[in-house]
Structure formats: C-alpha cells, structure tokens
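In the previous chapter we treated chains in isolation. Here, by contrast, the input contains two separate entities that must be folded as one system, with a combined length of 1115 residues.
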Amino acid sequence: MARAHHGLLFALAWPLACNGTIGESSQPASGVAPSASSTGAHDTAPGQFACDESTIPPQASLRRLTMTQFENTIGSLAGWSLGDPAAGSAVVQSLADVLATLPEDHREPVPEDPHGSYRRLDQSLQQEHVEGFYAVGVAVGNALTMPDRIAKVVGSCSTDNDASNDGACLDGFIQRFGSRALRRAITADDVVFYRSIYGVSAVADPLAYADVIAVMLNTPEFLYFVEHGDEPVAGQAGVFRVSPTELASRLSYQFLQTMPDDTLWSTATSRALGEPDTYRREVDRVFADAASRTTIGEFVADWLKVDDLPAMDAHNQDLVFRAFAGADLPGSDLRQHMIDDVMSMVDFMVWSRHGSMDDLLTTGLSFHRSGDLARIYGLPAWDGTANPPAFGEGQRPGLLTRALFLASGSANTRPISKGVFVRRGVLCDDLPPPPPGVNAVPPELRSDMTTRQVVEELTEKAGTVCVACHKTMINPLGFATEGFDALGRFRTSQRLYDAQGNDTGSKPVDTTSVPRVLPDDPSESRTPRDLASLIVKSGKANVCLARNYFRFTFARWEDVTRDACTLEDMRQRLENGGAVVDMLKQAALSEAFARRAFE
Amino acid sequence: MATRIIDITRRRLLRGAAGFSLALPFLPSLAERTALGDPVYTRPRRLFWFATDHGGAFENNMFPDVATLTTRQEYLPGHTIGSGPLAGTPDGDRVVVSPILSGKATSLTPSMVGKMNVLRGLDCPFFILHNTGLHLGNYAANISTAGDGFEAQKSPRPTIDQLLAWSPSFYRDVSTIRQRSMIMSSGRELSSNWSDPSHRSGTIQNVRGIDSSRDLFNSIFVPADAGKPQRPPIVDRILESYKTLRDGNRRLSSSDKQRLSDHIDRLNELERRLNVKASCGNVMVPTDDAKSHQKIDATDAVTHWRLFCDVVVAAFLCGTSRIAVAGVGSTEKFVGFQGDWHPDVAHQWQLPDKQKLLSDSYQHFFEGVFLDAAHKLDIEEAPGVSYLDNTLMAWSQESCMATHSSISVPIVTMGSAGGYFKTGIYADYRNVVDSKARWDPGAGHTMWLGILYNQWLANVLLSMGLAPADFELWGHKGYGLPLVTRETYPPLLLQHYQGASSSYFQMASTPLPFLT
C-alpha cells in the first residue's frame, strides 16, 4: 500500500486534541523525563529514559521465526547437513514453489502504529503458516534424502547395505541433525520419539529419514524461539537469564537471521557463551558478518516504511502527470531506484562512515546509482566505489530531502504525508486520529493554487476541526520540503496544469514554516537545512531511533517505563554524535537481551 | 437413509456460466451433498460479503427515493421506521433503483430487484473513524490512536465470518470443506479471529486475505488422489511434539503455552483438511488470475473481482466452502481515477465533480461485480430455489455519506439466506422526526440517526443458523461492541443511544423489522 495513502488515511484532518502538547504518547510514558523546554507531560525529547533497575520487563511470548528467518534457516541447515552452504542454497532454490505458499511477513499494524510497524512484529499464526511449514518440512525431508544426498546428510551408514549399523546410524543422525534443527541438546526421550517416527524398517529407509526430518522441521523448537531460561535474575521475580544455547539463537537471529553457525554453537554448548568476554567476542564476530548489514537493512526499510512508496509510473497515461513529468516520465524501476538511493545512504553512513543520526539528517552526499535519479537530482550517479558525489551546500541535506520521501507517484506533492512521517517516524510523536465531521465546510479550491495553498484550504481553515493538528503538528513539517516537486526535483515555483495537462502558469513555492519540533519552539524554518538543524538540536531523532531499534530487536513495542534501562542504554550510544553502528550492536550487549520474563 | 439427488444438469450450470471464467462439469459429488428430500436436510446457507472503503456517496445517490417507503411502524417509542418495496425504474435500456443501484435492464431484472434489499439507518454509536472492522463486527480494527476508536481497540473480537467459519451451528459437516472461509483482499484487514479458533482463546488476529484468484482456486480444489501414501501420516507426530512441550514441566510463560495451543489448533485443522474428500476434481484450472488485473482502469477492476467471484461461485456450487469475504477496498479503479482518491475525492465528497466520481465508482462496482456475482449464483440448486436464494450477499461501506462518520452506513444485499430474510425491500431505520437524531454534516445535507449496526450483524448470524447464545458476548445483545461515545459534538450519538444498556442495545439480537 502506498505511503501517501497510509498517511492520508489518518492525516487529512486532525482534531481537537492538538492543543500544543506535542509528544503525547498513546501509552503511559512516565519513564521519560520531560525536557526542560517541554510543556508536555509525556514529552520524549530530548529527555532521557528514566532507568530503574528494579523494574521488571513485560512477560515474553513465544516468538515465531519470521519467514525470512525460516527460509534462511532451512538453507543454513541444509547447507550444514550437506557440508556445503552452496548446496543448501540449491535446496532452497529447488523448493521455491513450496516456500512461496508461506505468507509473507507484514509490517504488523499495532495500536501505536496502525499503519504498520516491523516485519518482526508479525507474530500472527495463520493457517497458511502451519500448512506451509508442513509442506516445506516434507519437501526438505525428501530433498535431503535423495540418493545423491542421503549419505552426506545421514552418513555412509545409511547406504552401506549393512543392517547391523542402521540403529546406530539413526541414533547418530537424530543426535547430530536434531540438535542443530531444534537448537538444543537432544535428550534420550527425543531419540525414542524420533525413532518411533522412523519406524521399524528393516533397512535404512530414505522415506523414513525424510519423515524424521519433516517432523523436526515442524517442531516448536525449530519454528519458535523456545526458551526455558537458566539462572534467575536476582531481585527480579519471574525473570531468568536465558541459557547459552538460547542466547546463541537470539544473537544469531538478531543479526544473521538464521541458526547459529558452528563457532557460535560450540561456545553455546560448552556454556562458554555465558562468560561476558566470550559473549562480547561473539557479538563482535557475528555483528561483523556481512549478513548483519542485510539484517540492519531490513530494520531500516521497515523503520522508513520504504515499501509504502507508490509506483512511480502508475499515472504515466494521465495527461496532467505526463505534462508534469516531462522528460522525466518514470520508468517502472524508478521507484526501486529511489528506495535503493536511501538504503545505500543509510548503509554507507552507518557502516562505512560510522555516522551518527545527525549525519543521516544532514549529509549532502548522494548515493543514487541510476540515470533517472541522476536527472532528477541534477547530479551524476555514484559508481558505488569512489567517494559519493555531493550536492551543493545546503541543497539537499539528509534523508528527508531524498526522492523516497518526496515522491508521491502523482503530479502533486503530499505535504500532509511528509509531515506525518516526520512527526511519527523521525520524532516519535503521536498524532491523534482524524475527527468525525471533517469537511463540514466545503473547501474553496481554485485551479491557480499551489499544493501548499490547497492543503491549507483543506485543513487549516478557521473554524474547522482540522486546523488544530494540521497547522501545528503536521503541515509545517511537510511544507519545509515543498522546494522539491512530486518526483523529487528541486524547484522554486510550482507549475500548474489544467485537467488536460495544459500549462496554466506557475506560482512560487513557500517553504517557510514553524515546524515545532519541540512543542514550544517558535523557531521558523525556511529551508530543509533549517528543519534538519532543528531536529538535530532537539535530540528527538536519537530518542526515536533508539525506540525504533528496540522494537525491531525485541519484536515488540517498547514500554518506556519497564524497558527504560535498555532504551536509555541505546540512546546514550547516539548522544553527542555517537555512531549509529554502536547503538545497533549495543542492543545485543544489553542486559535485557540475555534475559526473559516468564511472569 | 434415502436421499434425493438433485438434478443439476449441465444446462443449469451453463445458464450460470455466462461470462464465467471456470468450466464446471456435471458434479455428482456435489449432488450427493445437496439432498433435498432428506427431512434432516436444511438448506445450506452461504455468506458472501463485499466491503468497500470510504463511503462518501450522497444519500440520494445511494438510497432509493424515500417516497417509496409505504409502510411505517414503531421501533421504539418515539422512533418510527419505514419500509417499502424495492422497484426498478426503467431508464432507456437501464433500470434504476437508485443512481448507484442501477444496471442494464437485462441484468437488473425485476427478479433480481426482488432478491435485493437496501438497508438505511444502521449506525455505529461511537466515532470509529477510519476502520476495516465495522463491516464484519470487529470494531477494534480501526486506526485511531486516541478517542473512541482507541477505546474500541481494547475489545477485539472475531468478525462474523470467522465466527461462522468455526461454528458447528453453521458448518455441521466439514468433511467437504476445504476452506472454512475465503478471504480476498486488496490489503484490507477485514477478517479477524482468535489465534486458537476452536477453543476461542489466545489473541484476536487478522485472518490474512489472498490476492490471487488462482491461489484461492488452488487452495479450494483438491487435486486428484495421488495414491495411497507409502508411510503413515506425520501430522499427529508433529502434534505430539507440541503437546509434549506445552504439557511438560519445563518453564514456560502462560503466553508461551497459549502460543503452543494456537499452533496445535492449526495442526488439527491441517489434519482435517488433508482428509477432505475430493470434490469437483474436474474443474478446469483458471488460466487468468486477478493478480494480473490491477491497473487503474475500470475494465480491469471489474475483471479483477470477477475472477475472484468466479472461484467463490465454483466453491459454493461444489460445496467446498460456504463463506467468502471480498475486501474490495478503495473504488477509484472502477472509474480509472488517476489521482489521489482519498484526499482529492473521498474527502471532497460535497463537491459535485467529486461526488460524481464517488457515485460512479460505486455504481460500476455494483453493476460490474456485485450484481454480476449474484447472477452467477442465481442458478437452480433445488426446484424453485437458486444458490443465490440460499446465500446472503452483502455489500457494506466503511463510512456513510460524510467520510470519517459511520452512521447510516449503507447495506445492500442479494439473496434471502435460505429464506430467512424477505427480499425486495427498502428498509429505513432512521428516526427522522427526533431533533436529537438529526445531524447536518455540511453542504446542505441532513442525516438522521437510526438503529444499531450491531443488530444488523446479529441478524446476519441468525440468518446463518446461529442462536443468540452462539454470539452474544460481554452480556451484550447483538454483535459488535457495547460502546457509545461520550463525546457531545454532532452527530449526537450519546443523546440518541443513551448508553450501552439502552433499549437499542436490548433489541440488538432481535430480528430486524420488515426483513423477517
């Protein structure tokens, strides 16, 4: 679904509750100390999270692997059992049709973000999940027991026609394969259970091995993060440290999205992972793996809701859009180029530059790689290896000036959507829902109005229920980037068209606003750089990034009181220009990462 | 036990097959399941629901003329309601029930008008705002982050389609049912259920829709028997692994155990589905897919939903499912609108050019999809009774004329739900004389509050064979949520509905006047 649509679903009009108290959270936020400049009782910025070590985190719930994690684990396990990661990938490729029957992960809507949060928060269990798991398990069982594979997976004892070793062969397989599939030690009861599935075949039976594999891949231990905990945490009733093998799984899935590798697994089974130095070394090692960048990319994509960007070429037949786009009429891949541009920016700034959140909001470097975006930006494309090209001073500072956040897929910009995204996604302020009875006063729209003027007429009209929120919380943040058109091109004036796409003139755009990044701040913003400066100065973006990464890490919404210690730990990493990459890693080093509340 | 086999001839099937994208051969397996002479047999009722976004259509575009309301009766003291026969007015080669409810005379025939109902004056008594949950009764499915909608989010419940899907009162025999419900979606979360549906426990979660008509087809029609399996089934062994963990003595949270129970319930359903008897094995696999028709184009929009509807009709005829929900979503594609529908059209519903777009989009949906599906179902199932007659087709909208508001949400139906509902009726439940019920939403329009949408939902469940005890919750009659706003700005919902124990709520499980 398109971002603009999402935004506008709740953004067209904002009601009575916007009385200047910006930052009011929908959940109690007493753990957040209000800033000196804030009048809001629940203001989150530039506040610190008030850590109280005695607070007990919310009870955990059995997490299911995301579909990305499930597919990765199938590949890793197949590769491990075949002794060749590439062979594991081949198995996954051969199962493409059956894997496609599994539901895709959704950015789960939650009460705090009804427009979709993180794929990791998608913990619903659909019938299609269970049926897909079953089908995949059966298919993997069959694939790994094919004649050319079974000896590698089970051992040569499975094909040596020597019945005398078949029992030991089966037991060994259950122990070896089972411990990696179930991510825990195999017990005597387990052996009995899987032997019973294998049955009483007189000879080594590939079909029976296939059944054993299929069942293992459908067990709760394979599909979920089954955790029983280890030692109780002193002073926190119902809270336990997770066991080394459970911690290994947490760490591996946090950054690699798959089962622990041999090194991590051996430190877990030896319990060495429970030692702080060993754990820190493993965190460093896992975090340095290239797969971590991919995982963080998933976080960034969800945080920035990049998949909400509408198709750029959907309106190519529309006369107005054609006239508006001119020589930049989009191809079908422009949308992806816009996404790649921002994803590359974050990847480069985080991993190569060890940049801060402030850097993301202000950098003048550009990371577009395609000719279409090069034309839109008026800057040659980056080759991906040399230093990225730079925009002129102040021309396009930071994330919010890139096409991904400007383009609408139509001829008109969407100041409301832009404003809503900044308010919620970058500043973590809540917005009240739109009220009933909007549009009681019909708008008086004229064809010679700029987009800003139309929005002001629709939502800032005196006497309407819309004006309170739109005028203070939403529109000003969107107006700040009206110096870019709906394809992301720089402009100082807006060209106007009639319904047939005829040019009817132009009017200057107005980018001046009072964005109220902090509720009482009357500072005016005239340019995108001004807005970025106000956001950086407020410290709210750091708080907001920490909150968002918490959601991704723990696959749940934060409780700013009970999770305050972890949140504050993460926020502090970003303070004073701290590197984002350090915060990303810090989450796995927090106390909460190694604990679980059972009550 | 002697059973009478219904004579479903090829001629009858072909009659329904005009414009049909699937070929259904003669189906003895189908006939066996529809044994009319059996005294135990009750007509198998079906539900086919369509939900569209926004609303915004002027009431005089949506509803028939109030002058056709010829019968009046008291609903509650001081609240008089009206009804009248639905009638189509010829207009050239077209027939008009209302500007939106119109179609070609060859399609919107007197017979079809006679199988239709139009309901007016069904209200949500609080400010639910943008939502996907009102349609089918999970009012918690809204996007509010404060106010009434946020309050409603604290009380989620299954939607009525899912309540039916897992109710033994509705599905007395599931031996042929491949899909308890078919959810078709354009990204809208319309359907909700417990995470453990059999035990009505766990959390309320969205039931995902499918966006491919071909995938829907494949999920319903059982491929030919692959032969006797070489090994014993393993689902029961997987089940065992879950039960062992859940019921063991290792440390787990209560939430963990619930999640394991949820999975166990799904495995039980998998086991059931694996044992469903093959039905309609000769249905031709469709060559086209709704997924391939998503352009912003009126013809493509109709094609998209017709492909889905064809699968639903085939499933109904073959007895492999009896519930379908179509999350049609926003309707701009039905007029090929290229701009931003939500702000530029839906929220400018008062402006004449925007109103025309809204009304045209709904008219095209009605004629191209809803009416078309009704025709495809209107083939004989038993002497004098069609599949449509045994079905309740319903079309609901997210909001009323004034977008963001959900009073007098229009409901259009086809079919009588196996004779439960009288049809051919325009029912108007508004109280048009009480000033407390009046609301002027702007632009010179006047609306009136009526009765609870909860009562409509309860009536749907009653029509499908459920008793009030099967669906009443929280000591509340009807279906939905016992919540009345405390807000005092117009429309004056609190003054009209008075509270969740008022007479309106007490009436919410009773049959709707005029229809039964």
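The two ends of chain A are 38 Å apart (CA to CA). Strands of chain A lie at 239-241, 493-497, 503-508, 595-597. Compare these points with the single-chain example from earlier in the chapter.
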